[in-house]
Amino acid sequence: MLHDPPKPSTPEQRHESRRLQTSALVIIAFAVVLFLLVQARFILISLATAIIVFSITSDVINFIARQRVGPFRIPNVVASLAALVLISTALLILTSILLAQVNSVVVTTLSYTEQAPSAIASLFAFLGEDSQMAILNALRSLDVSSYLRSAAGQASGIMQATVLIILFVGFLFAERIWFHTKLQNLVGDNEQADRVSKIIQSIIHRVNYYLLVKTVISAITGGMIFVLAELFQLDLAVAIGIITFVLNFIPNIGSIVATFLIALVAHVQIGDGTITLAVFTISGIIQFVNGSIIDPMLMGRALRLSSFGIILSLAFWGAVWGVPGMFLSVPIMVMMLVVCSHVPNLRPIAVLLSREGLPETEEMLDQTVDRDLFGQEMRDG
Question: Tens of pLDDT along 145-199?
Fold first, then answer.
């Protein structure tokens, strides 16, 4: 029996077929990228952190190079070495302090393992005696000491990551002088290369400004929380202050966790509900004023990110890279916002990521690239 010959496909059918193929390729590419992000997380987290540190160090180099020793300016090579030594020393000191406080938290927490379950369960007394006893039994069944030792072991990997970050930054310095030449050869058009360079400088400027403001606000918040813990004579006052400083770099969630943390420590140590409520209230006020009033005032229009977009970025990078991903979520989102703002086909994404639906314009690009982290002209002499 003869079959009818296949009917030729119409343009609409061919277009639909290409659309389906493109969609399938995009899904496959996303799955592959996600797989690589998870499998190479340690290297990629260290590299992403190194790039951010390198961008900050570049501004430090420009600042040092502008200084004068008598009639002479500091050479760029000397400024580069000085900045690298300063950043490396600061990273190693901060890592050492963090590890020391982790050990302090582990030792102190182990000393409270007996009374902590009863103190925490008492917070749920309003649910009834049966519920309180069920929570108490569940808490007592947890092997807290093994969890703490495991956490302390994982924290020791921070020093390895710090050394790797310093090595990455050093190699980025070695490539720094050839970057513009490579960019011109890669793009093949001097005008387009200058535009790409401006976009990169805009990303660096905004990320650096965000980190500067966030560091100042987090340091003030951590200091105030330390004073609060000292006033109530809490054992982990220094550790709580440092942990609060670190957690405040995680948008939205970090301040909430820090507030509950100091209240929990106060309740476990003192066991007085009134004092716990006072500590929780004062800490919450400090976090709200610094994080919701002063922080946005200092950020201004330099970081115009959508709050919902920040939550999505926080959830995605937290799921992919864990806690380090939460710290890196905002800088990565800033990069996406700036890039999408200057790519016509991606500009709708920038509109969604921006707070008021007003992403960066070409005029704003020219305004930001000429100044560094210290607000000085980057091409100054």
Answer: 666 666 666 666 788 888 888 888 888 887 777 777 787 787 777 778 788 888 8
d(CA 344, CA 342) in angstroms, rounded, equals 6
What is the β-pairing status of strands 68-69 and 72-73? antiparallel
Pairwise CA distance, residues 88 & 83, whole Å: 8
* pLDDT tens per residue, range 15-52: 677 878 887 888 888 888 888 888 888 888 888 888 88
Report, as ranges of residue numbers, the positions in the chain whose pLDDT lies below 70.
1-9, 11-15, 65, 68-70, 107, 109-114, 142-156, 300-303, 357-381
Burial (CB count within 10 angstroms: exposed 0-12, middle 13-18, buried 19+), residue 63: middle
Rounded Cα–Cα distance for residues 371 and 381 (Å) = 13
What pTM does this model have? 0.78
